[in-house]
């Protein structure tokens, strides 16, 4: 059902954890209806230098969170904002159709984290 | 890697003796039971022998057994066949929220045909109250169908009491005994039921073979029209090898029933004790009124599909009623009907034991399961609690405390 890459990021997720000194935090989803992703980012000179996640959800949700936190590292905020559900799913070697919403959650949690960072800069 | 199969509610491996019994009918004894020459006669005799074996398992007469392709077909047949046969007397049927999709979707089909259907509520154990059944009966009610035992939470319903309620009012009573027959003692005379569904692969028989018990003299409208197989009540050339396998599996189940029940229950109790030592894990279903090999839980703060897949990666096969593990992305309606909050239902995990499991399997499972839970809770943002979510009562330890009402969203 899952690609090898999804299984790899699910069984061996990267960047699991909280970030006490995070510059931006975004949470998306709710546990009643399915998955919840919480993404924390560290920003330096307009670039995301570190990212961590905590996720309540299925294998796909965990793999998506892991992949999103890998993808954003080193990216400018604008580049990070261009990450979409399709780009995450592609990086993972595809997701089953019924799991595409997990990919959506990852991109949305990231956007919220970036918005959170921006709102703190104002 | 060690392989432990704990998903016997999904299906069972074939008993070696069942396999042996089926082989001749996949090879040289391939005749059509309708043929009048010796090849056909041998096939026909094999089917009638299987009918006797299956009837004997549930204390019925051979003539009361109709072979079907599955438990689902037997359930469809019972609901539609009786509702249609009696539609001049009334157009109301009663089922429960614990039923299998083959009952629920048949009921929905009947609703579209103009029937009224009552879906009975259940308590936090998944138990159906015979008094509520009684109160749901109207002048229009012609059929009541209640599941014997749930494959999701293992609960055994008070079928005898509910059948009595139906009898008092002269209403036909069907029970879906697919998860029960062959795994616990099921006696149609003692239960006093009119119809009963069963499936061979639930008791070490082959897939593709099921049966519907129909009490002698009861009129039922066929689901499949065609030739005169099964006395004209179920057309189609018989699946002879599967039927022979079902017969052999029924014979073995009857002979070994108490030994099988004893051994799986012992292992199950050990499994439940071990798993409930983990914090914030709850038993679902009833602590005692449950199938002997059935252990089902909700694990807080993590999700069922993730648990199931990590366990499978360690050679442990299980099931889950979480939304993410279902193709429909909806949490098990059974768990929600029991009042389990949707967030907790997400953490559903089900282990169903069989005769192929050993004490070492349980030890291995307990060890690996703790590691999997710990790992997933490390990843979960809720490891320290749901935050604004209230703590859920532990059904197993506080048998009288109610579950709190599920909230829509947090």
Please summarize what this structure is.
The complex is a heterodimer of chains A (122) and B (410). Chain A is an alpha+beta fold and 122 residues long.
**Computed Rg of chain A:** 13 Å
Shape of chain A: globular
In order across it, which strands form the biggest sheet of chain B? Answer: 2-8-7-6-5-3-4
Helix content of chain A: 40-55%
Assembly annotation:
heterodimer
Identify the biggest protein-protein contact and residues per side.
Answer: A-B, 26 and 31 residues
Percent helix of chain B: 25-40%
Based on secondary structure, the structural category of chain B is alpha/beta
**Order of helix and strand elements from N to C terminus of chain B:** EHHEHEHEHEHEHEEHEEHEHHEH
The biggest beta sheet of chain A is recorded as: 3 strands, antiparallel
Q: What share of residues are in beta strands of chain A?
A: 15-25%
Q: Per CATH, what is the topology of the largest domain in chain B?
A: Aspartate Aminotransferase, domain 2
**Average pLDDT level of chain A:** 93
Mean pLDDT of chain B: 92
Structural class of chain A: alpha+beta
Tell me what the CATH architecture of the largest domain in chain B is. 3-Layer(aba) Sandwich
Order of strands across the main sheet of chain A:
1-2-3
**Poorly predicted parts of chain A:** none
Instruction: Provide the CATH superfamily of the largest domain in chain B.
Output: Type I PLP-dependent aspartate aminotransferase-like (Major domain)
Overall CATH class of the largest domain in chain B:
Alpha Beta
Order of helices and strands of chain A: HEEEHHHH
